[in-house]
Design a protein that fits this description.
alpha/beta; TIM Barrel; two-stranded antiparallel sheet
Length: 321
């Protein structure tokens, strides 16, 4: 409450929530949420590319009844906005991903639970009736990945979101300087340790390097299809060639994403590659501020779904739905 009083009235847009986060969070945590890879060129482009989109309004159209709802993999949601997989929610909110899932339920949208969640698959599933997808990275120990998939299935998750743009963690210089330490990841309890033996640079980067399977490629998708009956979405597509390849191997959809500019710097802004992919069932993920959301909808019409990260808690998200 004290932080809310710093501003004149309650925050009314994403920029003001971001400023509150900067004031409230320890520097290590804020920098983790806020930063991009290397020079952060793509991070800046993600934002600036939206600002260059101009509206072309049409007048004298009946807008007295507006329906933004859409259907994603058979699930109707209230608008083409869903919650993207983001890690470590308890760094910003005491209830972590449980609060985020409840906000998704209240807003009638889909939450994609991060593999690096601070609440377990089971805790999030039992917290509310939100439609949930589960994000998967493939690890060197495939049995760990398989166990996570099976837990998601048993607990009612409706799709697997396979993130493919992180064979190694991006070089996030703020995390290296801050010696970023991953919080307790309860999904991995009894499976793998998230602790790192040294204190040089980002412990999170060291954990990812020792855990992620950098050899995973197109031919390995058959392994994932063989262990689950859930729909599979591939997250991290930026080219038409890869979109076509995904279609050929039989995935159920793709998520166009440069990982919030947190993986490989100097890739194009997500919005700049969407036109190239218009002929495919596609979901769009990127870093967007304020009115850019509305401009995204006008640009994409019904072809795409926008995924939004929300860290301010279920009450704030629900009240702004």
């Amino acid at each position: 409450m004290l932080l809310l009083l710093i501003m004149e009235g309650e925050p009314v847009n994403v920029n003001e929530f971001q400023e509150l986060a900067r004031l409230a969070l320890p520097k290590m945590y804020y920098d983790y949420y806020d930063g991009g890879a290397e020079d952060q060129y793509t991070l800046k482009e993600n934002v600036e590319s939206f600002r260059k989109i101009a509206l072309r309004p049409r007048i004298l159209v009946d807008v007295s009844r507006i329906d933004l709802s859409t259907i994603i993999l058979g699930h109707r949601i209230s608008a083409p906005i869903m919650i993207a997989p983001t890690a470590f929610h308890k760094l910003a909110h005491p209830q972590g991903e449980v609060a985020t899932a409840r906000a998704a339920a209240a807003s009638n949208t889909i939450m994609v639970l991060s593999y690096m969640s601070t609440c377990t698959v089971e805790e999030v599933a039992s917290s509310c009736n939100a439609v949930r997808f589960f994000q998967l990275y493939v690890y060197k120990r495939r049995d760990i990945s398989a166990q996570l998939v099976h837990r998601a299935e048993r607990n009612g998750y409706k799709a697997i979101v396979l993130t493919v743009d992180a064979p190694r963690l991006g070089r996030r210089e703020a995390d290296i300087k801050n010696k970023m330490i991953a919080p307790q990841l309860n999904n991995f309890e009894g499976l793998i340790s998230t602790k790192v033996d040294h204190d040089e640079g980002s412990n999170l980067e060291a954990f990812a390097k020792g855990t992620f399977d950098a050899s995973f490629c197109w031919r390995d998708l058959g392994w994932l299809r063989a262990i689950t009956n859930l729909p599979i979405l591939i997250k991290g597509v930026l080219t038409r060639e890869d979109a076509i390849k995904a279609m050929e191997v039989g995935v159920d959809g793709i998520i166009v994403s440069n990982h919030g500019a947190r993986q490989l710097d100097y890739t194009p802004a997500t919005i700049c590659v969407l036109e190239e992919l218009l002929n495919h069932e596609t979901y769009a993920l990127g870093h967007v501020l304020q009115t850019s959301l509305f401009r995204l909808f006008t640009l994409l019409e019904e072809k795409f779904l926008f995924s939004l990260m929300e860290e301010c808690g279920e009450e704030q998200m629900s009240s702004r739905h």
